[in-house]
Amino acid sequence: MTNHELHYLTNADLHCHSTVSDGMLEPEAIASRAAANGVQLWSLTDHDEVGGQHRARAAAHALGMAYLSGTEVSVTFAGETVHILGLGFDADDAALREGLARTRGGREERAHDMAAGLAKVGIHGAYEGALKYVGNPELISRTHFARFLVEAGHCADTSEVFRRFLTDGKPGFVPHRWARLGEAVSWITRAGGVAVIAHPARYSRFTPTEEYALFTEFKAHGGAGVEVVTGSHSAAECDKYAEMAREFDLLASRGSDFHAPGESRTDLGAMPPLPGRLTPVWEALSDRVQWPE
Ligand code: AMP
Ligand code: MN
Ligand code: MN
Ligand code: MN
C-alpha cells in the first residue's frame, strides 16, 4: 500500500491497548491479531504512555500494516474524565513524554486509596491482586482492579465490577485530577499529531451544554478530530457523532478500543465503516503514516 491508496483504505483501527497500559496482550500480539483481522492501518493507543510505540511500529511493519503513533490521554474536564486520543505525533517528543509521565504520576497513590476503599467493604488484598495484572508499574488502572475482582469471585465480569465498585460513589472509586484539556491537546499537536475526542458517547454525565463546551473548547485548543466509530458506540451513537463531526468540522476516527480477548466487546478491526460525508483522520495524517518497507 502506498500513500495515495490511503483514500481507498477501508480497515483502519486507531484505538487499542496493550500490556503497556491496561490491555492483556503484548504489542506484538495485538499487531498479529489486527493483521489477522484485516487491519491495514493500525495505531496502539495505550493510556498516558508511549512506551510501546517503537515495538508496535516494528511489529506492524513486519506484518505489512501501515502505522500511526498513538496514545489516549486521561483528561479532567468539567469535573469528569474525558479521553483524548493523540495520533500521528513524534513518539520521541520530549514535552509530550514529560506531560504523559506527569499524567501517570498519581496512579500509584490512587491505587492504594482504591484498595483502602475496597478493604472497607471487605475486599482485601486488592492492590496486590491488581498488581498481578499490571504490565507497566506506572500504569496501574481500574481495569487491573476489575480483573482481580472477577478472579476473586466478587463479580461475574469487569462491567459488573465497574458498576458496583469502581465508578463515582462506589467503594473503590477515588476521584482523580488528570491532565487539563488544553495541555493534552497541545502536547499532541506540538508533537506533530492530531488530537481526537475518544468515544464521546461514553461521557453520559455531561449535560448537552457541557458536551457542547467540550467540543467547542477542544477545537479552540487546536483539537481536530472525534472518534465516530468505536467499539463502545451503538449504531445510533455513531450517527449522532458523525453529525457532530460535520457540525464542528472535525476529522472522523475509527477504533475498536480493544483491551483483551473475551473482555472487549469489539475485536480489532471489526467495527462498521465510517459513515459518509466525513473526512477520515488518516487522510489528514497522510504525512504522518509510517509505511512498511
Ligand atoms: P482508569 O484510567 O484507571 O480510570 O481506568 C479507565 C479504564 O477502565 C478505561 O480505559 C477502560 O478500559 C476501563 N473502563 C472504564 N469504565 C468501564 C466499564 N464500565 N466497564 C469496563 N471497563 C471500563
Ligand atoms: Mn482502558
Ligand atoms: Mn477510553
Ligand atoms: Mn481506550
What is the compact description of this entry?
With about 290 residues, the protein is α/β, with parallel strands linked by helices. It is built from eleven helices and eight strands. About 50% of the residues are buried.
Q: How would you characterize this protein structure?
A:
The chain has helices at 27-36, 53-62, 94-104, 107-120, 126-131, 142-151, 158-166, 181-190, 208-220, 235-247, 281-284, and strands at 12-13, 41-42, 66-67, 70-77, 80-87, 194-197, 225-230, 251-255. With 293 residues, the protein is of the alpha/beta class. The strands form two sheets. It has a five-stranded mixed beta sheet. Helix 3 (94-104) runs antiparallel to helix 8 (181-190) and helix 6 crosses helix 7. One manganese (II) ion is lined by residues 15, 17, 72, 257.
Query: What is the topology, as strand order, of the major beta sheet?
Result: 4-5-6-7-8
Low-confidence stretches: none
Based on CA atoms alone, the radius of gyration comes out at 18 Å
Helix content: 25-40%
Q: What coarse outline follows from CA principal-axis ratios?
A: globular
The overall average pLDDT, rounded, is 97
How do the SSEs run, as a string of H and E? EHEHEEEHHHHHHEHEHEH
Question: Helices and strands: which structural class?
Answer: alpha/beta
Quantity of strands, as a count: 8
In percent, how much strand structure appears in the residues?
5-15%
Number of helices: 11
The N- to C-terminal Cα distance equals 10 Å
Major beta-sheet overview: 5 strands, mixed
Distinct bound molecules: adenosine monophosphate, manganese (II) ion
